Amino acid sequence: MPKVLLLPGDGIGPEIMSQAERVLDVVNEKFDLQIETEHGLLGGSAIDAHGVPMPEETLLKAKQVDAVLLGAVGGPKWDNLDREIRPEKGLLGIRSGLELFANLRPALTYSQLASASSLRAELVSGLDILIVRELTGGIYFGQPRGIHTNDAGDREGFNTYRYDESEIKRIGRVAFESARKRNGRLCSVDKANVLEATVLWREVMNELAADYPDVELTHMYVDNAAMQLVKEPKQFDVIVTGNMFGDILSDIAAMLTGSIGMLPSASLNHSGVGMYEPCHGSAPDIAGQGVANPLAMILSLSMMLRYSLKQEAAAQAIDDAVSAVLDQGLRTGDIMTDGMTAVGTQEMGDAVVAALQ
Ligand code: IPM
Ligand code: MG
Fold first, then answer.
1. pLDDT, tens digit, 9 for 90 and up, residues 81-137
2. What whole-number distance in Å separates Cα of residue 290 and Cα of residue 345?
3. CA–CA distance from 357 to each of 25, 207, 347, 352 (Å)?
4. How sure is the predictor about 260, in pLDDT bands with cuts at 50, 70 and 90?
5. Backbone torsions φ then ψ of 211, nearest 5 degrees
6. Which of 8, 23, 88, 244 allows an S-S link to 17, with CB 3.0 to 4.6 Å?
């Protein structure tokens, strides 16, 4: 029987996770999936209970299941802790502990939401981009790193941007394969005019291209990519990039679609075990008010069913139900536009559940 670990996390995490759990209960029954769930702690909630952001037990459980579903971690309550035990360390720890090197972040504009974007609707309607972000290397994990006082008595903060060839190859292959299944266009984003690590990145991508003659590979500097994403976003199909650039570009891409509250993501390792989470964070400013948009969380569940558990029919049913509630005009605050019906977290969950039944 497939097993799934649920990590609600902090802030709005628990609220949106309970809506995803209701949806999971419905599809479990309806499609006879026999998925078993268990809960775990990660981030601030784990710090409160155990003093560390990623308890041993959480990683152990995560290694024994078929997939992990994560809400979000972090919040002001834990912001002043030593940086080694901040909630974000829990997230980075589980990504690295499970070797989830491939982060897939689709940015898809729902036709119903094109007018919720901060860009003109014609620029974003029909937008369908996939950002493939390297997730367990680059400057996020490079050594040496730290803050120390140098010989001149000045404090100095430093990080290391590094990638080895095999890390670039494995994420490159995921990106080429994804492009092959989509529209066959891959744009690799780097800063090869300045950073050696990305000169190598570009070289390796060019070498890989020989194995994928059906995919058209282009390269773009990251500053230009940021500009092109807001200028003419529909020029992109698949974007592949390193950890930090991917972090930044995926927030830009998310916002094009109307709201970051709509976007799920998948983080995969070699064996296809994955962790699924919304692209947005824990939104402490609205936590506990029942107003958060649960759709990115619910769509993350759908991605989990599709990619890790191979339950395409159940995943499609969830995607259709989400589209149906948008058709009904239901909107949480983040995607609200004139003439639509404002709903809270729970009502949005109710509507998805009803659309599934
Ligand atoms: C994300 C987040 C994380 C990241 C933070 C919370 C560590 O911004 O998933 O994009 O930088 O990867
Ligand atoms: Mg981010």
1. 988 889 999 999 999 999 999 999 999 999 899 888 999 999 999 999 999 999 999
2. 5
3. 11, 49, 15, 9
4. confident
5. -80, -10
6. 8
Is-contact 268 100, C-beta < 8 A?
Answer: yes
Which tens digits make up the pLDDT trace of 317-333?
Answer: 999 999 999 999 999 99
- Would the pTM count as exceeding 0.85? yes
For residue 72, the ligand 1 atom closest to its alpha carbon is 6
**In which element (H, E) is residue 348 found?**
helix 345-356
Which residues form ligand 1's pocket by a CB distance below 6 Å? 74, 88, 91, 247, 281
**pLDDT of the residue at 273:** 85
Atom 12 of ligand 1, nearest CA residue: 247
Residue minimizing CA distance to atom 5 of ligand 1: 88
Would you say 229 and 124 are in contact if contact means Cβ atoms under 8 Å apart? no
Q: Per the structure block, which two tokens stand in for 186? A: 């891959």
Q: Using CA of residue 45, residue 51, residue 54, residue 56, what is the dihedral sign? A: negative
**Ligand closest in space to the Cα of 134:** 1
Q: What's the Cα-to-Cα distance from 223 to each of 161, 204, 239, rounded to whole Å?
A: 17, 21, 14
> Please, are residues 123 and 192 in contact by the beta-carbon 8 Å criterion?
no
Nearest to 101 by CA among 203, 197, 253, 240: 240
Question: CB of 16 within 8 A of CB of 281?
Answer: no
Beta-strand pair 3-9/102-108:
unpaired
pLDDT at 218 over 90: yes
Cα of 229 vs its chain's centroid, Å: 18
Taking CA atoms only, the protein residue closest to ligand 1 atom 6 is 88
Give the DSSP per-residue string, 8-21: EESTTHHHHHHHHH
∠ CA 211-213-215, rounded to 5°: 105
Closest C-alpha to 322, from 356, 286, 345: 356
Would you place residue 17 in the very low, low, confident or very high pLDDT band (cuts 50, 70, 90)? very high
Query: What's the CA gap between 43 and 93, in Å, rounded?
Result: 10
What is the chain's alpha carbon radius of gyration, rounded to the nearest angstrom?
20
Residue numbers annotated as active site: 140, 191, 223, 247, 251
